[in-house]
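Weekly modeling sync, notes
Attendees: S.R. (lead), two postdocs, one rotation student

Agenda item 3: backlog of single-chain predictions. S.R. asked that every request posted to the team notebook include the full sequence so nobody has to chase files. The rotation student volunteered to paste the first one in as an example of the format we agreed on. Action items at the bottom.

Example entry:
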Amino acid sequence: MEQVTFRQMKDGTREEYVFLEQLEDTFNQGLVDRLLNALRQLENTLSGYQVTRLEHSLQSAARAEADGADEDMIVAALLHDLGDELAPYNHSQLAAAIIRPYVRAEVTWVIHHHGLFQKVYYAHHFGEDPHERDRYKDHPWYQTCVDFCERYDQAAFDPDYPTPPLEHFEPMLRRVFSRQPFDPAVIGEEYPLEV
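Predicted structure, as returned to the notebook:
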């Protein structure tokens, strides 16, 4: 079989869905390579900062690594702004969706909310509430997100910070994304993202 015959999913046979599943498994083996390519593309995006979006991402991951963070958090720091190009107003949620099947729920929650939490640094310049993140003050992962933003994200715009190349983080990326997706032993207890 080279392709399915159905035109509506409800008409597909078991054989066709097994065939598609095999193709999807093969395609998914290239996920890390696609992520690496997407990260490389950040070299040529949003301007105005002293570092490129790729350098910012690398520096965020380097800061997490230097701080002793685990691989889940380092990889999340590397990918946290991956959605800037395609989802500029909800880039945090896009990045969280990418990592969610492979990291503990706490890390997904932090990445999902980091855009909102970052507003504490600049929202007042636009007449917005810089403390909007406080609606999550009672959430068990609130402080983790505060720390992520303070230590790894908002500080990662320094052109003089010693930052390793993308290749340094590739083995971590491959290890994290080689996990069984949605493994309860990895993800742990999930909280609704908007609680």
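Discussion: group reviewed the output briefly. Residues 42 and 54 are 5 Å apart (CA to CA).
Action items: rotation student to repeat for the remaining queue; S.R. to check formatting next week.
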